[in-house]
Design a protein that fits this description.
With about 425 residues, the protein is an alpha/beta fold. A 5-stranded parallel β-sheet has the order 3-2-1-7-19. Helix content is about 25%, strand content about 30%. A hairpin with a 2-residue loop joins strand 25 and strand 26.
Length: about 425
């Protein structure tokens, strides 16, 4: 009877454990979660802060008996060391687990900015249920909140804070909002939208220091010379893979844990999935850490099937972000910044709050951005991920980027009725 150990009880870990139980019913499955909580989804925390759900609503699986009923041994502990040669994992509670296969699904941890005062009471990340409880206590109606970071995660948190009725200021080091997802035009549009909704936004600005103010408040000194007095500071300055415990383990890591198309590491029998994994992306031809839940789920499924002896390959890494910022929908797919020598098309309607940017390599759409253009999201993803050759339709899109739907239908599905539309446009 093989023993499969899974480190990390987030979405990737839970899906892997359930997949193993289904496909290796006679084997032992041990799921190790670092937090002293029922396995839950971090992506549900903003909805908890909004009041849409309670804490049980964040749980990945309902009911106390779910894991025991499947014969999954759920442990609450943190891995401190992996010995790949001896096939052992050391836990912080003193236990040692001996494994036949191991899945590293430990996710990410918030990146801590090196700022004086970052450890003061009232300064929190928004990453765990414990963080959410602390934020709920301070982010009451009318409270003054400063958020460091206006990236993807920061914008999701912003939505939750706005729903709580706080007075919100956002400080972003980059020259625009969501700088790793949006170009200057799109990032500027999102900023103006937020400001119109009453959010104070500082871009190209850093928090230099946080000090204790009067009456349990905090004074936050900014690089622009201003000091803001607030009730709560939220740090949303990015995340990094949680892989420090793998030092000297023999498992190869770069930005994340390096994996092949089977989600296996350089050590046979040791796999990785989710936010801590650096998986091969066939579209870009490189290994990437893509910290979104659909990737975590698919990588976990592939890893678990291979752990159970069923040879399975990961088809690709989805490079996609769709974001709702106070009601404004934006999306980013693939190589949205473009490639050397590639062509691009751009359309902006500031009055309507709409922006569309397409990036091509030859006649293939390799990336795109959109703001306020929700009807094209599905076909943009299909074209980028499918690496569809557009042929003459590329020239159509260079002139009119809004023709994505007919371009997709004609190119991807080869429906002859669309060729007439193309001929008509040429004339």
């Amino acid at each position: 009877m093989a023993h499969h150990v899974i480190l990390g009880a987030g979405p990737a870990g839970v899906i892997a454990a359930e997949t193993l139980r289904k496909h290796a019913p006679g084997d032992r499955v041990t799921l190790v979660g670092e937090e002293r909580e029922a396995p839950y989804s971090r992506m549900a925390i903003p909805y908890l802060l909004m009041g849409n759900i309670d804490e049980r609503g964040t749980w990945l699986r309902k009911g106390e008996a779910h894991y025991p009923s499947l014969g999954i041994d759920l442990r609450q502990a943190r891995a401190t060391r992996v010995d790949a040669a001896a096939r052992r994992v050391q836990l912080d509670n003193g236990e040692t687990l001996v494994f036949d296969t191991l899945l590293i699904a430990t996710g990410s941890n918030p990146a801590r900015a090196p700022i004086p005062g970052i450890d003061l009471p009232g300064v929190h990340s928004c990453w765990t249920l414990a963080d959410a409880r602390a934020i709920q206590a301070r982010a009451t109606q009318g409270a003054r909140v400063l958020q460091m970071g206006a990236g993807f995660i920061g914008c999701i948190i912003m939505e939750a804070l706005a729903m709580r009725g706080v007075h919100l200021s956002v400080v972003e080091m980059g020259d625009r909002m969501v700088p790793r997802m949006m170009g200057p035009v799109a990032g500027g549009m999102i900023r103006r939208w937020c400001e119109a909704k009453g959010v104070q936004v500082f871009t190209g600005t850093r928090v230099e220091a946080i000090t204790q103010g009067k009456d349990n408040t905090l004074d936050v000194r900014l690089s622009n010379g201003q000091t803001l007095n607030v009730d709560l500071v939220i740090s949303a300055t990015g995340v990094k893979p949680s892989i420090g415990f793998l030092e000297s383990s023999g498992v190869r890591c770069l930005q994340g844990v390096l994996t092949d198309e089977h989600m296996q590491t350089n050590v046979p029998g040791i796999y990785a999935a989710g936010d801590c994994a650096e998986a091969f992306d066939k579209v870009s031809g490189t290994t990437v850490v893509s910290a979104i839940q659909p990737n975590a789920a698919e990588q976990a499924r592939v890893a678990a099937l291979n752990m159970a002896g069923q040879r399975t390959e990961l088809k690709g890494v989805t490079q996609i972000n769709v974001l709702d910022t106070l009601g404004l929908i934006s999306a980013s797919f693939g190589n949205w910044q473009g490639v050397p020598g590639g062509e691009h098309a751009e359309l902006t309607d500031l009055a309507e709050g709409r922006h569309l940017s397409l990036q091509f390599k030859g006649d293939v759409l390799v990336g795109c951005n959109s703001v306020g253009w929700t009807e094209h999201v599905g076909v943009m993803r299909g074209l980028v991920e499918g690496q569809i050759r557009l042929g003459a339709w590329k020239d159509v899109l260079l002139k009119d980027p809004t023709q994505l739907v007919p371009a997709y239908l004609a190119s991807a599905q080869a429906q002859g009725k669309w060729s007439g539309a193309l001929d008509a446009r040429r004339r």
